[in-house]
Structure formats: C-alpha cells, structure tokens
Design goal:
heterodimer; A: 159 residues; alpha+beta; 6 strands; 42% strand; B: 171 residues; Nuclear Transport Factor 2, Chain: A; globular
C-alpha cells in the first residue's frame, strides 16, 4: 500500500496495518540504544546505525547527508562543536507509529516510522531545558537480525 | 518472525517492564512512598550521582541500601515538596530492556522530572538517566539495584548501556 492510501485510510478512521508487538518493541529499543550513542558523543558508532547507503535529511540543512561515512564525518563535526559547550543532550523519541513497508532483497523486514523527537539539554552544573522539538520519519530495515536506518527525515519545528 | 537479538526484550517483556515503570513513577509522583517502596526488593540498593543538594531529599546519602533506607530518603523529599505545594511528575523514556540469564532484566532509560509549583508555571526540573536491575516477583517486577545519574553532574554516567552495569568503581 502506498503511504497516500494509508493516510486516507487513517483519516477515515479505518484500519491501518501495524507491525507486530515484537517488531515494535525491537524498534523502540533500537532507537533508545542508537540515540544513547549520539548522546555519548560516539558519532562513528552512531553512524553504524545507518545502512551503507543511508540518507539523513533535516529541514535545517541545505543538503541531506548521503552514505554512512558522510553521515559519520558530518555528525562528528557536530559532536565536537558541542563538546566545547559542556552540555549533556538527551534525544527522546516517542509517539512512534510503525507501519510495514515492502522489504527489498536481503532485508528480513522493512518498516516506516513516524515519531516525535524532543531534545533536552543540561549544562554541567546547570538547569535542564527543552532544546528542540522535531518530528521524524524513517525507513528502517532488518538485516541479519539487526535494524538499520535506510532513510531518515527530521523536521525541526518552527523552521 | 526471527527471535529478537539476545540483548533485546520481546514485545511481551518490554510491555511488562513499561507498565511496571508507569505504575512506579506514578506512586512516587503521588507521594505514596509506602507503596512505592514496595516496588523495590527488601535488600535493594539505590545509588544517585547527583549534586549534593539534589540527592533526592537534599540530605539523603548518595547510596541507600535496603527498602527502609530508600523509603526514608523518598519520604524526606516528598515531605519537602508537599510543604511547598510543589507537584512532581517523573517521565521515563528511551527504555531498553536486556534479559539476563538468571531471569533478571537490566534496563537503561532517560528520566525527566517536570515540576509545577502551586499556581504554576511548570518547569523541566531535571534530566537524568537510570539503570536498573529488575527481578521477577509474583506476577510483576521489583527493583533490586538502581543507579540514577543527573545530567548536570560532570563525569556522571553519560555513556551507553552496554558499557556497564553496576559499573561504579567507587562503591
């Protein structure tokens, strides 16, 4: 089913196909572990969560980051910039909608997700604040039992 | 479908643990310390990596051993905020659940504390991470070991779940 049909069915209040409870639990735990890596400043490990040809697009960037190595070097720059500011960020994903997608060869399962992603920021010795509110949309694939991001779109609210 | 990776809970277990936390945080938010304390094992250990003035009640020791000591520290905190008319809500997110061979589970999560003084406005009071060992008890779960780390503390636990559990070398 195309996303358009799914959207129409959802707005009409009819049934939209959903992933299994096991898949959903795996995806939530994948997101938690993956964003722990970023919050720990491990940009290269974090980039391993994308497929080799993965794409990371954000509405605040002129061009998407394409390919795991480009994603790694671009995020490394961001992490190093942040390290100078002595803050701890926490990326929270929630309100995750997950619908099945058709899997390509070599993929055991493919899922499209939509979610909210809020970022909390705490300066060392200081007070926590909400740094950012965004929405995200991913295409995830499972290969050899491991979830990977094939495509990620992040839209910063207010941009 | 294929079984989950060994470090990942299946849907049923993940659901159980999420419900455990939903109930547990509500008990603390409601100030029901007696019932909240019963969500820990009798011999549980609760460690906090927090600034001295924010170790739970402000005057509680950073490591509490045993349900009674854990409850006493929480009672102090609840009493203080009740006197000031402050309401606290604990929100847990980004949860991972890793089953251990002995039937326990190791969890790792982010937790924020939203506080509302009488008359408002609400504020984001704290951002923390938590790492628990949960053990099965009857139909549910109990906390046997908890480490709660405030993000405001430089050098507090900020790494990923896989690096450690009960990994503090100074206790």
């Amino acid at each position: 089913m195309t996303p358009d049909v799914a959207a129409v069915m959802a707005s009409a209040g009819t049934h939209v196909p959903a992933v299994s409870a096991d898949t959903y639990a795996q995806i939530l735990q994948f997101y938690a572990r993956h964003m722990q890596l970023l919050d720990a400043g491990e940009a290269e490990e974090w980039a391993q969560g994308f497929t080799e040809d993965g794409v990371f697009a954000q509405n605040v960037k002129p061009e998407p980051w394409k390919g795991r190595s480009h994603i790694a070097t671009s995020m490394r720059r961001g992490v190093d910039r942040l390290a100078g500011r002595n803050v701890q960020r926490r990326h929270w994903f929630s309100m995750v909608v997950a619908t099945p997608e058709s899997a390509d060869a070599g993929e055991e399962e493919a899922v499209r997700t939509q979610y909210y992603a809020v970022v909390f920021e705490t300066p060392h010795g200081g007070k926590a604040s909400v740094y950012l509110s965004t929405t995200g949309e991913d295409v995830l694939v499972r290969r050899s039992g491991r979830w990977l991001i094939k495509h990620r779109d992040i839209n910063h609210d207010g941009s | 479908m294929a079984p989950p990776p060994p470090d990942t809970a299946d849907g049923r277990l993940y659901d159980e643990v999420q419900r455990f936390y939903a109930r547990q945080v509500r008990l603390l938010g409601d100030g029901d310390v007696d019932r909240w304390a019963l969500t820990f094992t009798e011999d549980a250990v609760f460690e906090q990596e927090a600034p001295a003035d924010k170790v739970f009640a402000g005057n509680a020791p950073p490591v509490r051993t045993g349900r009674a000591a854990i409850a006493a520290a929480a009672r102090g905190a609840v009493g203080e905020r009740r006197a000031d008319g402050r309401v606290r809500r604990y929100l847990i997110g980004m949860l991972t659940v890793r089953p251990a061979p002995d039937g326990a589970v190791h969890t790792r999560y982010d937790a924020v504390l939203v506080q509302t003084p009488r008359g408002g406005p609400c504020e984001l009071h704290l951002s923390t991470t938590g790492r628990d060992e949960l053990v099965r008890h009857d139909d549910g779960w109990l906390v046997r070991h908890r480490v709660n780390s405030h993000d405001s503390v430089a050098g507090s636990h900020t790494g990923t779940e896989q690096e450690e559990h009960h990994g503090r070398s100074d206790t």
